[in-house]
Amino acid sequence: MTVKITIAAPFKHTRKTGMRKNELVYYYALDRKWMSTEQANLLLSRAEEDGLLGQQNGVFSPRFDINEIIIPIGFKPTSSIFERNDPSQELIGRIAKAQGMQETAVVSEMNRIIKEQFDGNLLPPAALVLLAKKYNVPFKDQRDALAGSVKKS
Question: Staple 37 to which of 29, 69, 77, 149, CB 3.0 to 4.6 Å?
């Protein structure tokens, strides 16, 4: 969620629906002093890869409803926004913890679903969602990241 808040901040503060890359880098690095210009560029490219930002004619705009985002007073993103987390691995860990089983057992069950129920025609993130539903493990917070990982496959 911190990444979404960080992405939404310049759009909410300036009340703009679209901003050029140099405006966003200026906002993050010089105006707010949240990060270096290199980090700001990295943030923008990752946000675009993850489907949080779209770009048309050099103008970036969020691909989510920024009105749903609340920016806490004094908000400053931590360095964790630059860490890549694997949504599939996160969901495997959640399922394993909820069921008291090893992560390898979850992966085995995922592979079994893919092979036996879908003849190998199902991507692992989709199989993990089926497992999460089967075991009533929450996954909605990872849904966008999982969908993004499927699109990259």
Answer: 29
